[in-house]
Task: structure prediction
Amino acid sequence: MRKFVEIDEEFICENCGKKIEKLGYTCRDHCNYCLHSKHVDINPGDRAEECHGDLEPISVELSNKKGYVIVYKCKKCGRIRKNKAAKDDNMDLIIKLTVSKTV
Ligand SMILES: [Zn+2]
Ligand SMILES: [Zn+2]
Result:
């Protein structure tokens, strides 16, 4: 059985080029400036996906249990993924994406 591993590490965002600091409380899986992510996980944090495409945030859902959940579409394979928003994410962008869905 594969162990569930969360990798929390610094990385350079491939979309905006900013250096993303470690999150500290859970795995950092997306850029907190432009919210882009990378299609590297099958299960959160496992880095087992071989696509490595750019995950583009297409909308944000507001869940009562989880708070903001960012919905991504992979530019390479077209799959939809969801990631929980982090506490230091760009709130302006999150709100923009939330509004654009409900309008
Ligand atoms: Zn970025
Ligand atoms: Zn993909």
In short: The chain has one domain: 11-102. Helices lie at 91-102.
